[in-house]
Every structure is written in structure tokens, then in C-alpha cells.
Design brief:
Layout: H1 4-23, H2 25-32, H3 34-39, E1 47-48, H4 50-57, E2 69-74, E3 80-88, H5 97-112, E4 116-122, E5 133-138, E6 141-146, E7 148-151, H6 157-162, H7 166-179, H8 184-198, H9 205-218, H10 223-240, H11 245-273, H12 278-286, H13 289-299, H14 305-309
Parallel strand pairs: 3-4, 4-7
Antiparallel strand pairs: 1-2, 2-3, 5-6
Helix pairs in contact: 1-9, 1-12, 4-5, 7-8, 7-9, 8-9, 8-10, 10-11, 11-13
């Protein structure tokens, strides 16, 4: 069973992954599940089924499903189907993970009578943990559910460096975030290298901005190093004559707004609850602006820190 500490350790990855997946869903499938990408009629579009997913998960209690996505697509032969995606960023082995995939698959089918394709992205660091099936056998009855599990550790760094798919950069950034967690100097160099690569891969202006946000979201640095890196980026853009500098400056302005929101929230918490514990300070420091604004609203009626930061809202 996951604890609140488990949730806190993964907060830094949730929002960046959610945002980049929603912004580049076709590229996501092309990178992680080519067979599905080839079989979908992309001209008909796709739809994120947040309300349906909420109905499916409401009565279940297996694990933390914050990163799940349910997406409606159409096959090239006109058949509607749903793709159930779970991004597992927990570093520890979860004994009920495959069971959770099974539960949500059969609940989706039971409620809506549509084919459900299961895809799990395993972004943890445990090489031997590779769940891909849930099954049981009893008295002549056998139940088995198999789903596709993609392990980020399996991608070679060379292949990731050569790919122009945005999720190659996403995978590299995530792996470096795990690898350099306690090595600030190395993290600075890797973050700098990945950002510079954005301008060398032929990405569009918007892709550069979105991938910059992902890299910035998962590869946290102390403020003084982040400011130094930001200055380097501005100079690099000027030398390359890239048309993205104004957008990067707006990101810098947003950081200033975020910093002010974080400071205000911390002061409010101190005034009502006294000393703010380290876990809450870390959560605030790593949060995006929408989360800070949401927590500030919750503060009005909160009777404890848990009420402010509860994942249930």
C-alpha cells in the first residue's frame, strides 16, 4: 500500500507527465506502442474521457491512479475503442499493480461495453519489476488479463539520442532526474545538455517550449543554479538566432509569479499551523502554479495540513 510519503516523492513527475501526454498523445503512442498508433484513424481525432475514468475508478481502491488516462480513439476500420494508460512512477515494487490494471479494464468494459487496450509505462528504477499480466486459476476456471508494459530503463541512450519523437527527450529527462537525484552538479550539466538538444532536433517552436517545461519540471535545481542556467539559455538562443526567446522569458516571468505564490502560501500555513514540516516545504517548492493556487483556496476551509495537500481535493 502506498503512503503519503510515497505520493510526495513522486509529485515532481505527475504534472509534467500529465501535461506532455495530453499535449502530444499521438506522439506518445507512436513512441511507446507503434502497433496502436498505426491502427488508429487519427483524422477522426481522439478524446480524453476524464468523466468516464472517474466513474470507473470511483468505487475502486487499488493504488494511486492519479496518472491514469482513458482515451477514446477509432480504428482505421471504424471501430471505436478505448486506450487505458497508467504511468507508474513509483520506484518501489507494487504487488497489486497488475491487479489494478485488470480491475480498471473490466470495470470499463462492464460499464461501457467497449474494447479496452491496457498500456503501462513503468518509469521506476527496479529492473526486475515487470508486471504485464494478472491471472488466477481455481477449480477449472482460469482468468487472465495481459497488458503491454513499457519499461523506460529498456531504451538505449543511443536510440533515445537519435530519435526525434518528443518522448525520447521525455524519457531521457525522466531517467536523468532519477539518476541525478542527489548529484546537483551532474543534474545541472544534464539539464543544460537536454535543453540545448531541443534546438538541434528540428522541433517546432511550440514543441521546444513544451519540452522545456517538462525538463524544467522534472530536473529541479537550487534556485541559484536555475537562474544561472536560465541566463545561459537566453545567451544560447541569441547566438542561435532562434525565435523562442520571448516565450522562454515568459516562462521566467511565470517562475516569478510561482515564487510569490509559494511564499504567500508558506506564510499562511505558518500563521495557522505553526512550523511547516519539511515534506510540505518540499511539496510547495516543487509544485506548479495551478497546484499552489488550488492549495491556497483549500487553505480557507482547511483544519490541518492534510486538508490542504490531500490528493482527493
Amino acid at each position: 500500500m502506498e503512503t503519503k510519503d510515497d505520493y510526495r516523492s513522486n509529485d515532481e513527475f505527475d504534472a509534467p507527465w500529465k501535461d506532455i501526454l495530453e499535449a502530444y498523445f499521438p506522439e506518445f503512442l507512436e513512441f511507446f506502442l507503434q502497433e496502436a498508433f498505426d491502427g488508429i484513424d487519427w483524422e477522426r481525432g481522439f478524446e480524453f474521457l476524464d468523466k468516464e475514468l472517474s466513474r470507473i475508478t470511483r468505487a475502486a481502491s487499488i493504488g494511486d491512479r492519479r496518472m491514469d488516462k482513458l482515451v477514446k480513439v477509432w480504428r482505421r476500420d471504424g471501430v471505436e475503442l478505448w486506450v487505458l494508460i497508467h504511468i507508474e512512477i513509483q520506484g518501489d515494487r507494487k504487488t497489486n499493480f497488475a491487479e489494478g490494471m485488470y480491475v480498471y479494464q473490466y470495470r470499463a468494459y462492464d460499464l461501457y461495453q467497449v474494447p479496452v487496450v491496457g498500456l503501462a509505462i513503468l518509469a521506476d528504477e527496479e529492473d526486475g519489476w515487470r508486471p504485464s499480466e494478472f491471472s488466477y486459476t481455481l477449480w477449472g476456471t482460469r482468468q487472465s488479463y495481459q497488458f503491454t508494459a513499457i519499461k523506460l530503463l529498456d531504451y538505449s541512450e543511443y536510440a533515445l539520442e537519435q530519435s526525434t519523437n518528443p518522448f525520447a527527450i521525455v524519457t531521457l529527462a525522466h531517467r536523468q532526474a532519477k539518476k541525478t537525484k542527489h548529484r546537483t552538479g551532474d543534474r545541472y550539466q544534464e539539464k543544460r545538455r537536454l535543453i540545448r538538444r531541443l534546438y538541434q532536433q528540428g522541433y517546432s517552436r511550440q514543441q521546444v517550449i513544451d519540452l522545456f517545461r517538462f525538463i524544467d519540471g522534472v530536473l529541479h535545481l537550487p534556485e541559484e543554479l536555475d537562474d544561472r542556467l536560465f541566463s545561459e539559455i537566453v545567451i544560447f538562443e541569441e547566438n542561435q538566432k532562434m525565435p523562442y526567446i520571448s516565450s522562454v522569458e515568459r516562462i521566467g516571468e511565470k517562475r516569478g509569479v510561482k515564487k510569490g505564490e509559494a511564499t504567500m502560501l508558506t506564510r499562511m500555513l505558518q500563521r495557522r499551523f505553526g512550523t511547516v514540516p519539511d515534506w510540505a516545504n518540499e511539496k510547495i517548492a516543487k509544485a506548479d502554479l495551478p497546484s499552489l493556487e488550488e492549495w491556497s483556496l483549500r487553505f480557507v476551509d482547511a483544519s490541518s495540513l492534510d486538508d490542504v495537500f490531500s490528493d482527493k481535493g
